[in-house]
Write a structure and sequence with these properties.
The structure holds two protein chains of two kinds. Chain A is mainly α. In chain A, about 80% of the residues lie in helices and about 0% in strands. A two-stranded antiparallel ribbon of chain A has the order 1-2. In chain A, α6 packs antiparallel against α9. By secondary structure, chain B is mostly helical. Chain B folds into two domains: about 55 residues; about 230 residues, MetI-like (MetI-like fold). Chain B has twelve helices and no strands. In chain B, about 45% of the residues are buried. The chains are: A mainly alpha, B mainly alpha. At the A-B interface, α1, α3, α4, α5 and α6 of A face α3, α4, α5, α6 and α7 of B.
Chain lengths: ~280, ~300
């Protein structure tokens, strides 16, 4: 009996330790990133680092504004492309889809979520870039191409979260609207969708997080020049791309500046996560 | 908003809407409600675009990729001539196995604590939930950066398969935790009560009753995690490195299949081989997704 109690106790503690692993992971990630990145920000000067428009490691000039702007533009573009299609597809799947078709749609969306980002990037490079090049001239790489590709990539996130939000709305809302004489479409768009608003919004926020953090796909199609973009077709470099492209050979302050880029990206992500948590809390 | 008229009396065909509606009736109905028709068309259009994009992506890569698959790409050793992906496949298997070795016990253990032990509304549970959500929102490049700083630099491991696997383990931890939690929660309480009633202790109940009945859900989560490790690139470039061979130990550097594809593309000489690697990756992901779905469905487990 004694032995059994020891075992029960011991395992409980082991499970507890396992539960703390995720806390430890977050603490370690914050610690390593901030400890390695913050000194560089202060050495360069926060103003110069965040608002400097010139990134020139060979001359020790580190301004990441072009990358911040690049990330924001590309993410905004992804939202413009991905959100309408994603939300409407979710409406289709939740309300209009015949059961037989649903059996194809659902795995299709799951597959879309499962395709590795490097494969998306390759697809963008060999399929999208030539199309954009033929339509608009130039190299074909740039904000527009990256936005379209990212818009596709955030579709599954938005679709699956919006769909479950729509399904969570009580059926009586729909029935009431139809009972009052609304057409099916009106019932769905003017009672179901507003009722699922916060869930749909949470899906969009998560999509934003995915878009801003995407690396391998963007690197293939964005063109990666570290200058301020001037048009929707200009090439941009995102913060994520900056890290991957130069980390391999960077040393000293250059390397620290790259880690600091990661810190800025991380802060963006934390803000987005916070928004997501707040929306979810409101919903509950 | 200018077609508010239909709010008034029910159109005759709407009376019959409970039963079968023929296409012409539907069409007549939509003609009376142009705005509804517009919304309907938008919805259909969006769904068509979503499926068409996936279809185009798959067909494009498979049609162009399959002719590029050659037997020489599956030779044991990588050389500049054969550009074999076999070492990358082996590395992928090693990294995935190592990653699961760490992530699965941690993820399941932590889910067990959250569902079976923690008290309702405990502070710890709230913190763990918050951190798991944070973890699942962090992009893979941040994990890569962290893994590089911790394993490669601080631990002085350099680029190593182990470092890559540990980085990925942290990354997939929330996936395994969340699915296991859901699976444990879906085990009815009567199972627990029955087990306690027969005199079993908590541990025995967990290992003999709860875990076996939650197994399908847990398994589909683990397979989902496998899918993520197989497709991961950004977190591995600066942790496991980009060496094209199989290292002699797990402390050596080696590239997985996804990193292999990136390396081929960034060298710019091997587009054909990249097509072939892309095909292999897509086929792998499709198989993994399918297995995960099958397991989840077969056991009637309603998991996302």
């Amino acid at each position: 009996m004694e032995n059994n109690q020891v075992k029960e106790r011991g395992m409980k503690i082991l499970f507890l330790i396992a539960a703390c692993a995720s806390i430890l992971a977050v603490v370690l990630i914050c610690l390593f990133l901030f400890a390695n990145g913050l000194p560089a920000i202060f050495e360069i000067g926060p103003g110069k680092f965040l608002l400097g428009t010139k990134w020139d490691p060979t001359n020790n000039v580190y301004g990441i504004l072009p990358m911040i702007v690049g990330s924001l533009y590309v993410t905004a573009g992804a939202i413009i492309v991905g959100v309408p299609i994603g939300v409407l597809t979710a409406v289709f799947m939740a309300e209009f889809c015949p059961p037989k078709l649903y059996k194809i749609m659902k795995p299709a969306v799951e597959l879309l979520a499962g395709i590795p980002s490097i494969v998306y990037g390759f697809f963008g490079l060999v399929a999208l870039v030539p199309i954009i090049r033929n339509l608009f001239g130039g190299s074909g790489k740039g904000i527009l191409t990256a936005s379209i590709l990212l818009g596709i990539m955030i579709l599954p996130t938005i679709i699956s979260i919006s769909e479950s939000a729509l399904r969570a709305v009580p059926r009586s809302y729909y029935e009431g609207a139809v009972g009052l004489g609304a057409t099916k479409e009106r019932a769905v768009f003017f009672t179901m969708v507003p009722a699922a608003k916060s869930g749909i919004f949470a899906g969009i926020v998560l999509g934003i997080g995915r878009a801003i953090g995407e690396t391998m796909a963007v690197i293939m199609v964005a063109g990666n020049t570290a200058v301020m973009p001037t048009s929707i077709l200009s090439m941009v470099r995102t913060m994520t791309a900056n890290i991957v492209l130069e980390m391999g050979y960077a040393t000293d302050l250059h390397r620290e500046a790259l880690i600091a880029t990661g810190v800025v990206l991380f802060i963006f992500i934390l803000i987005i996560n916070l928004c997501f948590a707040l929306i979810k809390k409101k919903e509950a | 908003m200018d077609e508010n008229k239909p709010k008034a009396p029910l159109a005759p065909s709407e009376d019959q809407a409970i039963n079968k509606v023929t296409f012409s009736e539907k069409w007549a109905d939509y003609k009376k409600h142009p705005f509804s028709m517009f919304l309907y068309i938008l919805v259909i259009l969006a769904a068509v675009i979503t499926v068409a994009v996936l279809g185009y992506l798959l067909v494009f890569l498979l049609v162009k990729g399959i002719p590029n698959l050659k037997w020489s790409m599956f030779e044991w050793n990588y050389t500049r001539e054969n550009v074999s992906m076999m070492p990358a496949i082996i590395n992928t298997i090693i990294v995935t196995a190592l990653c699961l070795l760490f992530a699965v016990p941690l993820g399941i253990g932590s889910a067990i604590y959250l569902v079976e032990y923690a008290k309702r509304g405990s502070k710890l549970v709230e913190v763990v939930r918050l951190t798991t959500e944070t973890l699942s929102g962090i992009p893979s490049i941040i994990y890569g950066l962290f893994g590089f700083l911790m394993f490669a630099v601080s631990f002085k491991w350099g680029y190593s398969l182990l470092g890559g696997a540990l980085t990925l383990a942290i990354m997939v931890l929330p996936v395994i935790m969340r699915t296991t939690e859901e699976a444990l929660k879906s085990v009815p309480d009567s199972f627990r009560e029955g087990s306690y009633g027969l005199g079993a202790g908590k541990l025995r109940t967990i290992f003999r009753i709860i875990l076996p009945s939650a197994m399908p859900g847990i398994l589909s989560g683990v397979i989902l995690a496998v899918g993520r490790t197989v497709g991961e690139t950004a977190a591995l470039i600066y942790t496991a490195g980009t060496v094209a061979g199989v290292p002699s130990s797990i402390m050596g550097s080696g590239r997985t299949l996804a990193v292999h594809m990136y390396a081929l593309l960034s060298e710019g000489l091997y587009t054909d081989q990249a097509y072939a690697t892309g095909v292999v990756l897509i086929v792998l992901v499709v198989i993994i997704n399918w297995i995960s779905n099958r397991i989840a469905k077969k056991f009637g487990n309603k998991l996302g």
